Amino acid sequence: MKSRISGIGIISILCYLFIFTSCAYAIGIGVDPAKLEVEIESGGNTSKNITISNPENIEFGFHIYTDDEFTDWITISDPVFSLGPYQKKQVTIYFTPITDKSEKYNATIYAVAMDSKGSLNMGSGVKIPTYITINKAANSFYTNPIFIILTLFALVIILVSIAFLRKSR
């Protein structure tokens, strides 16, 4: 009976520790906008801005990154930085696709906040869904191959006409 009471006492203490004490600190992070929609012409580039905010009253370190699949053509202007309490920072995301295909891609940009002074490597993060549409680039009038061929053909006709006129004089 005595061992049963001590067993219940130990279990009660463990339950109290797990339920009523804070084991982890949840940190906040704000991101605006919550998703990105990007349209790019193949061979072109563009950029979008996101705003990262620290809604807490302590300083946090932030890390912004993307999926490994897109690291070759998505670049982040300032991927690692710190923000003091209630501060905000604008980060620019550059998109330079290395494909000529006209397709749609789904990527994710991750924003993670970590306690910059804490000894534990714990943090919280936000996933920013990014929808990328690559459109086929419209040919410029002057670089259109048909225009170039017609222009060269017209020049040849003009030169032949001038040569024929000079010969007939």
State the strand order across the main sheet.
2-9-8-4-6
Largest sheet: 5 strands, mixed
Q: Assign the CATH architecture of the largest domain.
A: Sandwich
By helix and strand content, what is the structural category? alpha+beta
User: What is the general shape?
Assistant: rod-shaped
> What would you report as the Rg, rounded to the nearest angstrom?
31 Å
Runs in which pLDDT lies below 50 for 5 or more consecutive residues are 14-26
How many helices? The count is 2
What helical percentage do the residues reach? 25-40%
What is the name of the CATH class of the largest domain?
Mainly Beta
Distance between the termini: 132 Å
| Sequence of secondary-structure elements | HEEEEEEEEEH
How many structural units, i.e. domains?
Answer: 2
User: Averaging pLDDT over every residue, what do you get?
Assistant: 79
Can you say what the CATH homologous superfamily of the largest domain is?
Immunoglobulins
What fold name stands as the CATH topology of the largest domain?
Immunoglobulin-like
Tell me the fraction of residues in β-strands, as a range. Answer: 35-45%
- Please count the beta strands (DSSP E, at least 2 residues each): 9
Structural account:
The chain is α+β, with helices and mostly antiparallel strands. It folds into 2 domains: 27-138, Sandwich (Immunoglobulin-like), CATH 2.60.40.10; 141-169. Helices cover 25% and strands 38% of the residues. The protein is built from 2 helices and 9 strands. It has a 5-stranded mixed beta sheet with strand order 2-9-8-4-6, with no helix packed on it. The chain has a 4-stranded antiparallel beta sheet with strand order 1-3-7-5, with no helix packed on it. A hairpin with a 7-residue loop joins strand 8 (104-115) and strand 9 (123-135). The model is unreliable at 14-26 (pLDDT under 50).
